[in-house]
Amino acid sequence: xxxxxxxxxxxxxxxxxxxxxxxxxxxxxxxxGVFLQADLMGFTTHGLNRxxxxxxxxxxxxxxxxxxxxxxxxRGNCFNWDADFLPGPWVVTKAVEQALxxxxxxxxxxxxxxxxxxxxxxxxxxxxxVERNCVGILTCSTPAENTVSPQGVKTPLFSANPIxxxxxxxxxxxxFDISMSVTAGGYVARAAREGKKLPAQYLKDSSGQLSDxxxxxxxxxxxxPVGGADHGYKGAALSAMLEVLSMALSGYGRADDVQEDDEAxxxxxxxxxxxxxxxxxxxxxxxxxxxxxxxxxxxxxxDPVRVxxxxxxxxxxxxxxxxxxxxxxVLADLKKVAEETxxxxxxxxx
Length: 350
Prior knowledge:
Blueprint: H1 7-19, H2 25-40, H3 51-60, E1 70-74, E2 78-82, H4 88-106, E3 108-116, H5 127-130, E4 135-141, E5 163-167, E6 174-178, H6 185-194, E7 203-204, E8 210-211, H7 214-218, E9 222-223, H8 228-250, E10 265-272, H9 280-295, H10 310-322, H11 328-341
Parallel strand pairs: 2-3
Antiparallel strand pairs: 1-2, 3-10, 4-5, 4-10, 5-6, 7-8, 7-9
């Protein structure tokens, strides 16, 4: 039986790891909480899996430990920050909190952030939004990254460009976090690490041939956009839209000299208060009905119908109560971090 760890103990461990670099403990705890939220909901490629890389950036100075984001524009209902390489999980959490404060007055608040250090799992920022009975939209792109090829070409152009969304809907929220690539780069890296092929031909090699071998991507290939080989023009169009929202609106993107910026992100965030448009009950009546109708659909194979948010929200609740079960490679990496820093791993609870 796989080991489980108390959620608060894992957060305290990650907090202490980040604080060991000289980062303020409150900021370190915010970062740790974001990574933990991802694992609680099952997004294991971008949760505590990212502790080691963030520790490295903090040690090397690639992540700025002190200071505040620079305000570039502010009209009350929208604002743009230059994070100047502050830790992504901390600065995005700060932006979400600021937007939630403002949304009571403005109804809809939109924010962009440029030059944020990598923000990890987008879904990890959604619980605090949905628990305030708001709708949230969050997307990011990576100006220095070219991993996803548009439809019909072999040249990688886009980054993975994930988008996350949440809306209150009764027993569990409608919630998802998806990339505009047919699979996320984290899953390609995990398959390569484990010596496995991908479930289907999600990649192109450097000559443009379809492949399920992670080595094809590592040797100069690319990931297909959403829609795959046949309908990838849809994913490419969505990728372009998300890069406009994140890169163009924030003012940091493809037009800039970004090759030394590694995984730094451009971010777009929008929070909507449903009560700005009508009653909360009227809103919940519609969202709950949608999810109930979706669940009641007849499945193709007899398995339960998968509604976005139900599994993640249920897993979050169960792991908070029963302990977090870490993906094997994530656990192995955290043990290495513990050895390197001298900060002991929390004890397993079962």
